[in-house]
Design a protein that fits this description.
This is ATP synthase epsilon chain. F-type ATPases have 2 components, CF(1) - the catalytic core - and CF(0) - the membrane proton channel. CF(1) has five subunits: alpha(3), beta(3), gamma(1), delta(1), epsilon(1). CF(0) has three main subunits: a, b and c. Belongs to the ATPase epsilon chain family. By secondary structure, the chain is an alpha+beta fold. It has 2 domains: 80 residues, ATP Synthase, domain 1 (Sandwich); 40 residues, ATP synthase delta/epsilon subunit, C-terminal domain (Single alpha-helices involved in coiled-coils or other helix-helix interfaces), CATH 1.20.5.440. It has 2 helices and 8 strands. Strands 1, 2, 3, 4, 5, 6, 7 and 8 form an 8-stranded mixed sheet that branches. Strand 1 and strand 2 form a beta hairpin. The chain is elongated. The structure holds adenosine-5'-triphosphate.
Length: 133
């Protein structure tokens, strides 16, 4: 591995979504936004419903993740996500429908509000990332 890069793996229970050597990873951990460069101090943290921004050779790509865990080691970043999608994999109509379902559940004020809030956050995160394409 080159000196200035680190290995990034993003996996879900179903599949490996991303695996490559990268220059920088920017995402939102439980304690706040974090930018990770090679040789970062070891760290384990829960991950928010958020974007993972990846910088590699002057290009930036983005992946939608729906919570999970972030593990940082000096030469390797591993993200274990509940679900993760590349922008081109995101079904915008499905995310819009999920957003509307969650909003009407929140308005009706019955049922599981926390669950509806999380579904809304996943849908809005997917729509935001699909729009960055
Ligand atoms: P929905 O209500 O539409 O199922 P959800 O937020 O409940 O959305 P998840 O439980 O987060 O869905 O994900 C279930 C599976 O479906 C995962 O594999 C995830 O990657 C995929 N998925 C969910 N929504 C989308 C979408 N809009 N486009 C592409 N894949 C999606």
């Amino acid at each position: 591995m080159s000196v200035s890069k680190m290995q990034l793996d993003i996996v879900t229970p179903e599949r490996k979504v991303y695996s490559d050597e990268v220059d920088m990873v920017i995402t939102r951990a439980a304690e706040g936004d974090i930018g990770i460069l090679p040789k970062h101090a070891p760290l384990v943290s829960p991950l928010k419903i958020t974007a993972v921004r990846i910088k590699k050779d002057g290009d930036e790509s983005v992946i939608a993740v729906s919570g999970g865990f972030l593990e940082v080691r000096p030469d390797k970043v591993t993200i274990l996500a509940e679900s993760a999608e590349l922008p081109e994999e995101i079904d915008v109509e499905r995310a819009k429908a999920a957003k509307e379902r969650a909003e009407s559940r929140l308005k009706s004020e019955d049922g599981d509000q926390k669950r509806a809030e999380l579904a809304l956050a996943r849908a809005m995160n997917r729509l935001d990332i699909a729009n960055r394409k």
